[in-house]
Amino acid sequence: MIYDIEFETLPREALEAIQLRRLRATLDRVYATVPFYRRKFEEAGVVPADIKTLKDLRRLPFTYKQDLRDNYPFGMFAVPMESVVRIHASSGTTGKATVVGYTARDIVTWSTLMARALASGGATCCDIIHNSYGYGLFTGGLGVHYGAERLGASVIPISGGNTKRQIMIMKDFGPTVLTSTPSYALHLAEVAREMGVGFGDLRFKVGIFGAEPWSEGMREEIERKLHLQALDIYGLSEVLGPGVSMECIEAKKGLHVAEDHFIAEVIDPDSGEVLPYGERGELVFTSITKEAFPVIRYRTRDISSLNPEPCICGRTSVRMNRVSGRTDDMLIIRGVNVFPSQIESVLMDMGETEPHYQLVVDRQDNLDQLTVMVEVGESVLASGEVRRFQDMEKRIAKNIKEFLGVSAKVKLVEPKTIARSEGKAQRVIDNRKF
Ligand SMILES: [Zn+2]
Question: What is d(CA 425, CA 104) in angstroms, rounded to the nearest whole number?
Answer without folding.
Answer: 32
